[in-house]
Amino acid sequence: MALRVVQWATGGVGTAAIKGVLEHPDLDLVGCWVHSAAKNGRDVGELIGGDPIGVIATSSAEEILALDADAVIYAPLLPDPDEVAALLRSGKNVVTPVGWIYPGEKQAAPMREAGLAGNATLHGTGIAPGGISEKFPILFSAMSTGVTFVRAEEFSDLRTYDAPDVVRHVMGFGETPDKALSGPMQKLLDNGFIQAVKMCVDAFGFAADPTITARQEIAVATAPIESPIGTIEPGQVAGRKFHWEALVGGEVVVRVTVNWLMGEENLDPHWDFGPEGQRYEMQVRGNPDFTVVITGFQGEVGEQGPEPGVVATAAHCVNSIPAVCAAPPGVATYLDLPLFGAKAAPGLQRG
Ligand SMILES: NC(=O)c1ccc[n+]([C@@H]2O[C@H](COP(=O)([O-])OP(=O)(O)OC[C@H]3O[C@@H](n4cnc5c(N)ncnc54)[C@H](OP(=O)(O)O)[C@@H]3O)[C@@H](O)[C@H]2O)c1
């Protein structure tokens, strides 16, 4: 029996998740919630640019809550904890890229309570925070012992990110350094990335200070830089780095870093990606030391189609569904779920 899945919101992640569910041999798409009035009442197959599939999108949360479904992929712009709790109480497992990857007790408690009431499980996942910043470093570290330091780092060219309002007003690119530094980005990122560092601290068993330090750096343009938000003028923000660190006795033992650059030219300080280019990198110092580099999750400037990292985020949600549905009710993190991967493409699947 295939698991019955609902997609909640059809942005970049939601659209890729629908395609992933339709290709997955153990999942059936049975419903879809949309925010946009223009999408309400439309066939979901058409919404993702394909043929009709007989599943009609709705903007009514009540209709979704009343549906007989096993799981919801919850991918709206911003999380609404009450909405997630209602889905859990209605008996639907929830997988989501918008939080709860390794929630503290205050965030976990109401979700656990709702999950127990509905016999359902909540699982937060994603690419970063998510796979790159905590799950994979922990997984790969099984090939080492005596770990002294763990690092997960993103190197991305933000010129491929086609969300001009977010890039300017939320991420602070094209603004003055003062405005960017006092903007919402640090706080927005802190919640997820501090959870990522804490999961590593707990999984490795580091005797780390309970406070995770967060710091950021800014680069400004030294000459006009063409970008999706228009020309970034000299003196305006064109590069940002965010770091989250756990310390033992003043020494960093876990570090997660994000490097977001508007290209690699005309920046002060002169930041670049080095010869390896855009990538995600994970390093473990132990016996032995090793580094894992992942390419392919970042699109190239000018490339058409969805951002691969967004598709990967959706895939991580989709592929987790069978394990999340089988997990005990409450909140399940990467540390609770068994190993799972993707399924073969249609046409290569066992009958
Ligand atoms: N952890 C990770 O690694 C990771 C990676 C990527 C994304 N994310 C997160 O996943 C979420 C979805 O990302 P995305 O790239 O799909 O974003 P997106 O393309 O901007 O889509 C978000 C969707 O949310 C719906 N929406 C818009 N305004 C809304 C509102 N006011 N209230 C509720 N829903 C609204 C819309 O759905 P309809 O179009 O259906 O109306 C929209 O398409 C974001 O929160 C993002 O930060 C996490």
TrEMBL record:
This is Dihydrodipicolinate reductase. It holds the Pfam family DAP_DH_C. Residues 139-341 form the 2,4-diaminopentanoate dehydrogenase C-terminal domain. It comes from Mycolicibacterium bacteremicum. InterPro entries: DAP_DH_C, NAD(P)-bd_dom_sf.
